[in-house]
Amino acid sequence: MDPTPGMATARIEAQTEGESRVLRATGRLDTEAAARLWPTAMKAAEGAPIVALDLAGLEAIDSAGAVMLLTAAPDAELRGAPDHAVALLERTRKALGTIPPPGPPAPWHPITAIGRATVNRGRDTVAGIAFIGEAVVTTLRVLTRPRLLRLADVLRHLDEVGTRAFPLTLLLGFLIGVILAYQSSIPLRRFGAEVFVPNLVGISLLRELGPLLAGVVLAGRTGSAFAAELGTMTVNEEVDALKIMGVDATAMLVLPRLVAATIAMPVLALLMNVAGLAGMTLIMGTLGYPWASVQSQLQQWLSLQDLAGGLFKAACFGLVIAGIGCRAGLSAGRGPRAVGDAATAAVVGGIVAIVVMDGVFAVLFFRLGI
């Protein structure tokens, strides 16, 4: 209500009538008065319950004042309230009963925050293990019932993961070969050992950089796409609809992507290696070393075991990246940022996972003498 000159300052006090307590409000109970009197009203509400609200001296009230009164005495009887106040209090009572107002933000406590983060991380870990178990069980089911795996979906994802990524992979591999050749020739030139640049670049590409960079390309290009696509289906409740209809969502949505990424990653890593060696050969030619010299060094120092080890790592990287992307999409929330968060989680999780796996493989291969 609009302010009117001559209206009294709002006051609120608790009075005792026998064994009952009455909360009396007078004056203009607007937003400013409610903010000033809120601690007093909450303190008055402590102890014995308030059975009545005496509003005979109330001159004006708005929604903030009504919320304060109903918070202090939600079940109290109204006494002497003007008609407009009664109507406002009833409307406010109904609104508070349907949608409760948000409470004050909880104070930040470091120990509580650490505990909450630990519990959330534990739940995510358990959910990830459950996803892996479900994928393994579905794979075993498909081995006994191959018709559950839709070949058309596998071929479609192979085209998305592999064929459409060829240009980017070739370009990136060629540039990496050029960079490695130039940068490694600078220190080796001091010792007259530029002829060993093909050895350095070839071993680095086949054993480490080829699979690793192909995995980065797959995580940024395909892992995010898997997460965004499945995240959109989750937000639109399409995945829930499949489960309600009795369709195995893992076999239909996840398994074809896992198979496609596992098959396509070694091919991408091989293309990365070939393009990198081509870029290195071009630079070696500009430095005065013919193709025959480069070929001799590569044949002398590279082996099929180096290539096989790199392709095996690439297949493992593809399986993990696709799994992380699918898991991020299927666990997306329901808000407007759910799909973006899922895609971000897929890219970050995929890159971190392949770097950690590459370190594990490096230690394992060293111990095994591979």
TrEMBL record:
SUPFAM superfamilies: SpoIIaa-like (SSF52091). The keyword Membrane applies. InterPro entries: Permease_MalE, STAS_dom, STAS_dom_sf. Gene3D superfamilies: STAS domain. Residues 10-80 form the STAS domain. Pfam families: MlaE. The chain crosses the membrane at residues 126-144, 164-182, 267-291, 311-330, 342-366. The keyword Isomerase does not apply. Keywords: Membrane, Transmembrane, Transmembrane helix. This is STAS domain-containing protein. The lineage of its organism: Bacteria, Pseudomonadati, Pseudomonadota, Alphaproteobacteria, Acetobacterales.
